[in-house]
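User: Here's a chain of 399 residues. Predict its fold as tokens.
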Amino acid sequence: MLAERRSDLRRCIELGERAAAESRRNADRMARAHAARDDRQPNVADIRRGHGDQEPMQVGVRPGVAERTRRRRDLQRRQCVHHAGGADRDHEPVIARDDPVRQELGGGIWAGTSLTCNLEEQCCTAFDENVCASTPLRPTPSATPLARGQTYAVPWSTTTSKLRLITNMGTWTRSLSGSAGHSPCRDGNATVACPFYLGSLTASTTGSLTPSAQCSDGTTAAAIVSSVQFQLEQPAFGVAKAGSTERGFPPGALILRTTATINGETFVRRQPNSFNVKGTQSSPTLLALTLDVPLTVPCNTGTAEITARIDLGSSGATGSPPSGTITVPSQVTCGVSRALTYTQSDPNNDIVSRRWLVDGTLLASSVTSVVFTGTHTLAVRLRDARGATTTVTKVVSCL
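Assistant: Prediction complete.
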């Protein structure tokens, strides 16, 4: 049934276009005839009628060809949709492709349905967790958005980040570029070990290397290796050593996807780390890791073992998370409404969301004060345009 309606709609539009073309030719002939009789007479107004869709136009002023074509096609589509079943029938309505405002409000999907917020900007604030970092038109579109759970995005320094291809005949080195997204644990590791979250990791080389290796068949061969890329396939959890800058990941924690072009052929390998991976984090924005990825590659009639050693070092962060302080006193009067007050700051000046929690319960965004009846834990959660989130807590009791 749906296919038949679409076919009827196409036929209707085609017939309407032919009729409209003939109508335009007749109108042009009439206009030339009128102009020949009296060159002071204005051109015939280009008025189209149909189901009440008459657009008032200024007499004597004809719209351009493109505008007339657009109006005619829009009207013809509306008429054809009406005759083919219209929006009251359960087939797809015709959506105007040249109406960005309507698309941003979600119009055209269902008849008579649209949003009051803009999908590209304001609608991101309609959820309990603000997701404005994912909108097409972010307040800071040049800032790299963070993936879920990430607090920092750090680019790799091409000076300290290296790929080393190690064979039984030597080592060949190229610079690496890319980034990682991570989060330290909330309570820190000053006195006890705590988890470390690595949300994303990418690294790649430019140019090529030509390592040599002794093959398993006893021969020697050289290969051209290019387009080497490494990517963390899923978020990983590691350990931040107590009272130390050391970080570590146990075997199986890191699932890496390695892609390389060797002598013109592309090889892809997905594998977990089979050994402990260690690194350091001297500050939230300075991260260093060393990974060894064993690879078996074709070598003449045999194979060769290559170790891809990845030394990664960050050069800072693309942005820092917001910070804040709850200014509600530690002791307040019981039974009296108290304003929820705080201070906030952000190095990038792009805080887009503030939400309050009481004893872990998220409050509505419209709530600006509460009545204390005992001891409660207040928390304010700040989020910037990249998605970096900071949660500040404070215990408040009443007397």
